[in-house]
Specification:
Blueprint lengths: L8 H11 L4 H8 L3 H9 L6 H11 L3 H5 L4 H6 L6 H9 L14 H16 L3 H22 L2 H21 L2 H18 L2 H17 L3 H15 L6 H20 L3 H18 L12 H14 L3 H8 L10 H17 L3 H14 L1 H5 L2 H13 L5 H11 L4
Length: 397
């Protein structure tokens, strides 16, 4: 009995490899993935790690979403999330058409509060709520920004574009995520905000981390840091700078550059000691806790799973931490625990990821890959484990 669809990542890798008339050895050579690791991943003996997925995607010239099977169309239809994507695309298309004569936009302070509420909803894991409202707000804020022509209007619009990016990235639409970022940059430039410009480069770098394009990602981090130097000194600037270093640390870890990863973590730790916890500054959750959380992620990316699990013993997640970030952390912990043979603990961490932010966890590739790995490890699947798999994507017998 299988709790997940049989079209798992390893099966897709095999299909994509054969479509390109490549042998397993050829893919290993092209991607740099050790031959034994590649064959076991394709066979489903071991789960696919983000590093292996990205390396394979580069080798066969597809995007990562294709390898992991995103977007998860059947589940999105079941949750009625798929119908919310097209309105977002349409709202992004009217950015340069000026004010819409059929839209009566509210005052900017009210629109700003609406934009902040959507950021909070995403951080609370309420993806459907945010996706249901963002398209209409983008259209209204677009009209308002063109009507008023002020920095406040453009930056409010940029915030809404950022929310569109968050939704697209979490639901597995990389093309829509990239378009949302381009619109965010367009609006941020009109708002003349160097800090937001640096954050744009951070979010843009994340898209290249996911695709395994580390050299481009590193260049974007450097560009983001230099952009931030143009801003006046402030806690806000320090927070975005620190978050850029955290993103760079994960990227270096995934590229298996341990020295660079540790260096970026150290710089982020230094900045966090000065800023303290900054949960709501641009909704980045930067601070000492996030540095510790990223240390777990970096160690896992370096395949140092034992050290990653050990690092969690000294980590307490604050009760007021955003549920989306908490869920992501427990997904990372579950992956590290699985690789160290802590099967029961890994499953418990997956349950914590689901409890914190169920809508996010359901569409998180790490949750799915880890569950597939646990499924292979379990000889007899308890009922609760099967129920978790049915929730992710339906039961196959």
């Amino acid at each position: 009995m299988h709790a997940l669809p049989e079209d798992r990542t390893g099966v897709r890798m095999k299909r994509l490899r054969r479509e390109r008339h490549l042998t397993q050895r050829a893919v290993s050579d092209l991607s740099g993935i050790p031959y034994s690791t590649y064959t076991k991943t394709e066979q489903g003996v071991i789960p696919a790690t983000p590093h292996v997925i990205a390396a394979f995607a580069r080798a066969v010239r597809v995007d990562v979403a294709t390898v992991v099977g995103q977007p998860y169309a059947e589940e999105l239809r079941g949750d009625e999330l798929d119908v919310l994507i097209m309105p977002v695309r349409e709202a992004l298309d009217v950015y340069d058409l000026g004010a819409d004569p059929d839209i009566r936009a509210r005052q900017l302070p009210e629109l700003h509060n609406e934009a902040e509420a959507l950021c909070a909803a995403v951080r609370a894991g309420e993806i459907k709520q945010a996706a249901s409202n963002v398209a209409g707000l983008i259209e209204e804020a677009t009209t308002a920004a063109h009507q008023y022509g002020t920095s406040e209007g453009w930056l409010t619009l940029a915030s809404l574009y950022r929310t569109a990016y968050d939704i697209a990235a979490k639901l597995g639409y990389p093309d829509l995520a990239q378009l949302s970022l381009a619109r965010m940059d367009w609006a941020a430039q009109r708002g003349s905000d160097a800090v937001l410009g640096g954050m744009y480069q951070y979010l843009r770098a994340l898209t290249y981390i996911r695709e395994g394009k580390y050299r481009t990602g590193q260049r974007l981090v450097s560009l983001g840091l230099s952009t931030l130097q143009q801003a006046d000194a402030s806690r806000e600037r320090d927070v975005v700078t620190g978050q850029l270093h955290l993103g760079a640390a994960v990227m270096s870890g995934r590229a298996h550059d341990a020295a660079q990863a540790i260096a970026h973590l150290g710089e982020a730790e230094r900045i966090a000691a000065a800023t303290g916890e900054c949960v709501e500054v641009h909704w980045l959750t930067f601070g000492p806790t996030n540095v510790k959380v990223h240390r777990v992620s970096v160690l896992a990316e370096l395949d140092q799973y034992g050290e990653a699990v050990e690092a969690t013993t000294e980590l307490d997640i604050p009760a007021d931490w955003p549920k989306s970030r908490t869920s992501h952390h427990y997904a990372e912990v579950a992956r590290a625990q699985m690789w160290t043979g802590k099967i029961d603990e890994s499953y418990k961490s997956l349950v914590k990821a689901r409890k914190a932010a169920p809508q996010q966890a359901k569409y998180h590739p790490t949750v799915r890959e880890t569950y597939a790995g646990l499924e292979a490890a379990y000889r007899r699947l308890p009922e609760s484990f099967l129920s978790f798999g049915a929730w992710l994507g339906g039961v196959r017998v």
